[in-house]
TrEMBL record:
Classification via InterPro entries: AsnC-type_HTH_dom, Dimeric_a/b-barrel, Tscrpt_reg_AsnC-like, Tscrpt_reg_AsnC/Lrp_C, WH-like_DNA-bd_sf, WH_DNA-bd_sf
Protein name, UniProt field: Lrp/AsnC family transcriptional regulator
SMART domains listed in its UniProt record: HTH_ASNC
Organism: Kitasatospora phosalacinea
Transcription regulation recorded as keyword: yes
Domain HTH asnC-type: 8-69
């Protein structure tokens, strides 16, 4: 299969891996470790950011370390025509970490966190306490054996097979 026009190559993959492993590393140190010119690293980085491949360099924050060890997923059914209002409502709830519109049973999937199971009830009440939300079904996450990750996908996109 020929590469996609906006696919990444092995150097992009190595740069992304290096930045994922050491987010505070500078461009000069990246160029030294990757054994390419500083301008090459900067140009690659700029291109990856412009294409949205790299979206930011912020810290990874663990909600459990902030005092929110309970994670749950809620599938929401919403009233027709209420999507924008429900999105705005959910965006105002600090415990809502992610919101996805979905197909299948339900209209939205929300990842939420809480301080405890009892606090989860408060969060759910706040989430569903909006006229546009008809029904919610919630599942508590017990374990996260494969946390959010993208490096295996980066490796595959950069040419598959071996490590980048």
């Amino acid at each position: 299969m020929p590469p996609q026009p906006d696919a990444i190559d092995a150097l992009d993959g190595k740069l992304i891996r290096l930045l994922a492993e050491e987010p505070r590393i500078g461009v000069l140190e990246c160029s030294r470790r990757l054994q390419v010119a500083r301008g090459t690293v900067q140009a690659r980085l700029d291109r990856l950011q412009a294409r949205g491949v790299i979206g930011g360099f912020g810290p990874q924050v663990d909600p459990a370390a902030l005092g929110y060890p309970v994670t749950a997923f809620a599938t929401l059914e919403i009233s027709q025509g209420q999507g924008a209002d429900v999105r705005a409502h959910l965006a105002a709830v600090p415990e809502v970490l992610e919101l996805h519109t979905i197909t299948g049973h339900g209209d939205m999937l929300v990842r939420i966190v809480a301080r405890s199971n009892a606090d989860l009830q408060r969060v759910i009440d706040r989430v569903v306490g909006f006229d546009g939300i008809v029904r919610a079904s919630t599942a508590i996450a017990l374990e996260n054996p494969v946390p959010y990750r993208v490096l295996p996908l980066v490796e595959q996109a950069a040419g598959g097979g071996g490590a980048i």
